[in-house]
Each structure stands twice: as C-alpha cells, then as structure tokens.
Amino acid sequence: MASMWSIAREMAEKAPPERNRWIDFLRALSIMAVVIGHWLVAAPYIDASGEVQGGHLLGIIPWTQWLTWGFQVMPIFFLVGGFSNGVSWAAQVRDGGRYSDWFASRVQRLINPVFPVLLAWAVFAFFGTQLGLERDVVSMATQLALIPVWFLAVYLLVTALVPLTWRAWQRFGWASFGALVLAAIAVDWLTLAQGVPYVNWLNFLFVWVSIHQLGYAWQQGRSHGLAAMALFLVGLATLFALTVFGPYPVAMIGVPGAELTNSMPPTIALLALGVMQAGLVILLQKSGRRMLESPKIWTATVLLNGMIMSVYLWHLTAFVLVMVAAWMLGGIGLHADPGSAGWWLARPIWFALYIAVLLPLVALFSRWERGFGPARDGRPVPQWRLVTGLLLICLGLAMTAAISIASPLGWTGVRIWVVALPFVGAALVGFGPVYRMVKKA
Length: 441
Fold this sequence. Notes:
By secondary structure, this protein is mainly α. The chain has one domain (about 1-370). The protein has helices at about 1-15, 20-40, 55-60, 70, 75-95, 100-110, 115-130, 135-145, 150-160, 160-170, 175-190, 205-220, 225-245, 270-285, 285-290, 295-305, 310-330, 340-365, 385-405, 415-430, 430-440, and strands spanning about 45, 50-55. It has a two-stranded antiparallel ribbon with strand order 1-2. α2 (about 20-40) crosses α16, α12 (about 205-220) runs parallel beside α14 (about 270-285) and α13 runs antiparallel to α14. The protein is globular. The relative contact order is 0.15.
C-alpha cells in the first residue's frame, strides 16, 4: 500500500496546475457513494424460521428512501463525464485526431477492468453448477455481484455520442439541454399518462445525455455563479414537486415491490436530482479546489482515481463473499433485524469486513485499468466495426445485469453468449489484449 501511495504522490505532483482537481475528486466521491450505498441498502438476514431473506433497507425502513437523494450520485458521474469528454474531444478536434482513436481510448478505460470480474464469475457459475449448487443460488449471487456493469453500458452509449452532443452544445448551447429535458418529459408523459409500453427506456439516453450536456456547460464556464444557483434551486424545487406532490417515488433507486422506479429506467425526477446536484457541486467548486491544494487530499484523490473502476466493479463481489462466509459460519451476524439498533451498530464491523475483502481484489485487478493500450497498427477502425463493437459490448453488459451470466439450463451453467459479447465487441473496436488474442487466433 505504501508503494501505491508513493506512485500516486508522484503522479499528483506531476499534475498540471490548470487541471481542475475538483472533477477528479467528484469522480472518486461519486463512486465511493455508490459503493457505500450498495453495502448499506442490501440487508440480508436470517428470519425466525432459519431462512435467509434478501432484505432491502429501503423497503424495510421507508424513511431511508430520503437518503437516496444523497447516495444516488450517478448524475454527478455523468456530469463530470461531460466535463472531461468535452475537454478531450475538443483537443482531439483541435489536433486533427480521429474519432476511432479517441473512442477506443475511452472504451478501453471502461471495458478493460470488466474482463476479469466477468471471467471470475463465469468460472464460479461453471464450477458451482458442476459441484451441484442450486442454480437459483448461483444465478442470484452472480447477478448481484455483476449488477454494476449496467452503468457502463449506458455510459459507453453516451460517450459514443460525444461528437454529436458536443456539436449540438457548440451550436445551440442551453437549448440543446432544454430539448433533451423536454424529450424526457414527453417520454414520462407517454409512459404514465398514456400507458405507452417500453418508450420509457428512451430516457436512458434523454436523461443521462442531458446531464452530460451540463458537463459541457460547466467546462465552458457557462454554469457558474447565478446559473449554478438557478440549477440547484430549480432542481430542488422540481424534485420536491415531483416526489412529494407528484406521482414519483421519493427513492432515487428501485425499491422492491414499488410500482414505479426512478432509476430503471430513469425518470424526470432523477433528472431533477441531477440538475440539483450539478448546481450544488459547481457552487462548491472554489472551496473544493482550495481543499485539494492539500498534498495529502490530492494524493488520496489520485490514488483512488487510479483504481476507481476496480473498486466499483468488485465491491459487490466483496459483499457476496462476506455474506457467503457469514452464512457458512452458521449465520453469524445475520440474525439482527435490519433497521434495529443492533443492526445499525454492526454496520461498521460489516463495512470493515467488506473493505478487507475488497482491497486484495483491487490490488490484484486494478492493473487492468492502466495497461493494454490500443493494439491496432495505426490504421483507423472502420465505422461499421466501431458501431457493431459498441452495440455488442453494451448488449453484453446489459444482459449481464438484467438476466445474469448464469444459466438455468445446459450443463455449463453459463450463458456463454452473454459473456462473449463484450469480448467480441472489444475485439471489433480493436484494442487491448482481446484484439491481440483474436489476431493470433
């Protein structure tokens, strides 16, 4: 750990003075909030009959649903993504670079860390099936551990659209954001008032791209001061109106048994939350950047950003491993009712266990975030390969989260086609070890 800190400190010292360190801090903070939120909201316990119940804190204690206004920070990740993508794409255009090179580099940073966790759980599903474990148990554990990959599928799609969304921002400015907001409102109206099926899935793009547009506004200095205050106040007022007085639930993530969820797919309530959060973090930017002048805080931010995808992708694996160990030890620690005083007092102990299991996983697999650069021979990747590769990657990640890579049928116990899709897509995009393996084959 000391060597990792030393490397991070060296990198921190080399950061150019004009770098907006607040963006890096927010990226790390948003992922850590997601990790803590997941560890807190999942509340399995053993009931009086001795059966393990998959408790969900938001369903057991309704008042905790308000906490999701702080823990649902995916909008911040898309906001800082818009800021960073705006900077890098503008530089790419200025230098006459190719879209294929730019997009492949962005994909690599997101998809490379997925490969080891995907393969690890495919191996678990295979050997668990061969050893006679109940397929429902294998599927539940696998799906729970791999839920985080859904976000990457959406973020990759939003990133792929950067040349279009950036051009729209350059030409229309705030109108490009407003048009997406109106589209999201129309989708919710069609869904809730007219009962049109499946149209709500379009809000995966309309909601998240609109937040991404706010990142462009921030990057170009068009959302500071009064604009940031307006975003915060309008977002907060709209969020209250939609949830307290309107038809939308207070929880910004799904609650078991609820008729409507704000996140799957996203609604305009989640969009309002994102607007509020955008205004807040922009308002806090000056004080945040002053805080990050501290060498220790900035070094810690650099360290976490260097392993951020590994933390995100493996944190539920650590959770599952700890839960399995507790169950195998006779259900130790699982007899307290979620929400009881004993349950809350035990949270620090459980969190310490999760971290103890997560750290070795991160240390082992975080190198996948750094290496394996583009393996092409300098020629641009054809457009059809970029599009096909992107769609295959996103489809594979979406299916991994939606239906699990574990199969209820077949002798392998693995949906091999789901596991294969991201690898094939990565090979088509043409980067990293996957591309090299395919070429050798």
